Prior knowledge:
Elements: E1 24-26, E2 33-35, H1 46-50, H2 55-58
Antiparallel strand pairs: 1-2
Amino acid sequence: MASDGEGVCMRCKTIPLTEESLTCLTCLTCGTPWHVPCLTSPPASLASTLQWECPDCSGDFDDLPVPGDGVR
Length: 72
């Protein structure tokens, strides 16, 4: 997925509020932003967030919630 450069979460398509920015991840490979709550299996540790890859780059499509599941 390509990022539009505006910081829009690639799952829920919203721009996080300032206070939410601490719960956002940026893919190490492609640089797309994602809300941690939008992932079904967020990184387990702070160290793993530094090496995090989005589902597109990692191939882990199980990490994407089902559309319409109430995710923000």
